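To the wet lab folks,

You asked to see what we're planning to order before we commit. Fair enough. Below is the target structure as tokens, and below that is the sequence we designed to fit it. If anything looks off to you, flag it before the synthesis order goes out.
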């Protein structure tokens, strides 16, 4: 089966309005979209098309999303999967990642964040749990929410952790403050104008010198690992 030159995304979401919003937003971002409301439709779509990434809601009407994910992996599909869920408990994130997800995005979310996660999953091109991020001497476990530098644990707040993970996932790219605000705070949150700057300052005190670079007038970046 030939791969379409335009990346295709399978959106599995039972909420009609959210599904329509994802369909529209991801099409505008340059993807082909197949959107379905349940697990049965997802399995039919997988049998008929090749996808660059799957966006999977866990609260499906026929079977649980994690059960569907296990079925997808058991059937041999290696397409990257980004879970989309309001289930924010640590055990739920671990359960999804252990079932074979590549990433886990919490609702409510910003579309820009989801698109960034989808791009990262496509770049990795693997259909297995990828909850460990490494960059030089830095290691993050996004399932256990643990961070290490030179194999020594460091303490990060939840927002510092999310911010660092987003920078590492996009190493080599400049991320704007708006992008980082969306990743850290999600939808419709009133925050101080210098919130990201404050978090960056705190992170720099805990990380190797020069890791997080400021691109004046644009945003922040972490260079690609050598």
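Sequence we intend to order:
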């Amino acid at each position: 089966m030939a791969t379409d030159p335009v990346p295709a995304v399978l959106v599995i979401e039972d909420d009609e309005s959210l599904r329509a919003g994802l369909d529209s937003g991801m099409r505008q971002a340059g993807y082909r979209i197949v959107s379905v409301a349940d697990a049965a439709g997802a399995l039919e779509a997988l049998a008929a098309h090749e996808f660059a990434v799957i966006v999977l809601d866990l609260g499906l009407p026929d079977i649980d999303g994690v059960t569907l994910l296990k079925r997808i992996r058991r059937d041999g599909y290696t397409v990257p999967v980004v879970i989309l869920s309001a289930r924010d408990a640590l055990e739920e994130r671990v359960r999804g990642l252990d079932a074979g997800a590549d990433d886990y995005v919490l609702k409510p979310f910003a579309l820009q964040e989801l698109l960034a996660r989808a791009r990262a999953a496509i770049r990795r091109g693997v259909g297995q749990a990828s909850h460990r991020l490494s960059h030089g001497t830095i290691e993050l476990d996004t399932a256990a929410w643990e961070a290490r530098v030179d194999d020594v644990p460091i303490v990060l707040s939840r927002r510092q952790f999310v911010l660092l993970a987003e920078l590492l996932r996009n190493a080599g790219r400049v991320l704007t403050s708006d992008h980082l605000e969306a990743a850290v705070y999600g939808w419709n949150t009133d925050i101080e104008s210098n919130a990201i700057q404050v978090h960056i300052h705190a992170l720099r005190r805990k990380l190797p010198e020069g890791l997080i670079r400021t691109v004046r007038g644009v945003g922040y970046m972490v260079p690609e690992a050598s």
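Structural context that might help your review: The first helix runs from residue 16 to 28. The CA atoms of residues 74 and 206 lie 41 Å apart.

Thanks,
Computational group
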